[in-house]
Amino acid sequence: MIDPLLLSQKLISCPSITPKNEGALEILEDSLYALGFTCERFDFEGIVNLYAYIGSGHPHLCFAGHTDVVPLGEASLWTHPPFQGVIHNDRLWGRGTADMKCAIACFISALSRFLNEKPFKGTISLLITGDEEKDAIHGTQRVLPIIAERGHLPDLCLIGEPTSLNEVGDTLKIGRRGSVVGKLICYGTQGHIAYPQYTDNPIPRMLNTLKALYEYEFDKGTDVFEPTRLEITSIDVGNTASNIVPQRIEAHFGIRLNILQDAKDLCEIVKSICNEYAGKHDLQMTIHGNAFLTKDSDKIMLLQKAVQAATGYFPALSATGATTDGRFISHYCPVIECGMLESTMHQVDEHVGLNDIQKLMSIYISILKVFFLSAPSPSASEE
Ligand SMILES: [Zn+2]
Q: What is the CATH number of the domain that holds 366?
């Protein structure tokens, strides 16, 4: 049996800040080979990805995740060394504990118990990328078409991203918001502040534009999605003088959009607001993805019941939070996410409770049992 805590500690010890691997995938491969999995590497532009599978045909459950982690932030503020897998006060400390190396360790440990019990019919696969936390260009997005080409698409993808609020398993994510980022530069005419008649100050135009963007009501949200919102992330003039009207001002913003919006339409709305208020300006917008929502209510209910069987509580459904690789996978199959507590992800002193590691492993065992043993997927007859 694989110990989820030991495997977590090994993974945490790899300083795999995107795009580095630092031995993380090798650790997974060693465990998965021992369980009888076939492991395949996909290297794209220096990013390593792993696709591992056991069995054949349907039902097919895929676990998706990433071994890369975000940087430390202010390294001196960490109470415990972030890449050593320190256990203190019944918690495991380190970068990647919540997001999301422990979840991968829990799933592989769950597999070691599930596969040991009795034979199953179908396929279990893992799609693990090293390129989720940054651009996410050379990871999941590139491996999926290859798997699809082979006709190896899963009936359901379980993502181990942190989803839980107060107790592990109290919330499943069945969707995620999309993301658009933008940069706006307003131009004016530089000059002496005592002679405004010879100047054109771009700052008031920028402020009016940002106010209009900030207050714009894109929608009111849905039962699982928060309203689409634009947040301003920086405003810079770079003016070191107190008597000069600046020539330019630059602002950055990000929009998290829900299922009611299409990213391209949203860009048009932003464009028209800028045209109305910004005067002479440049606007650049980058679309990082639309929102997605899993609508397969049978599979959602299946997983909710599996979590309840392991924890005693029925998980809530949500679509809040950051973007994940679910935005790519959702084009191929239904996606449901279930993982650790969200609260310390990406923070200094990221950690998980030792009992949460055990609990998440139990949840994954229950999901495997429910998915393969009690409720064959509708597509099982295709094989
Ligand atoms: Zn993550």
A: 3.40.630.10
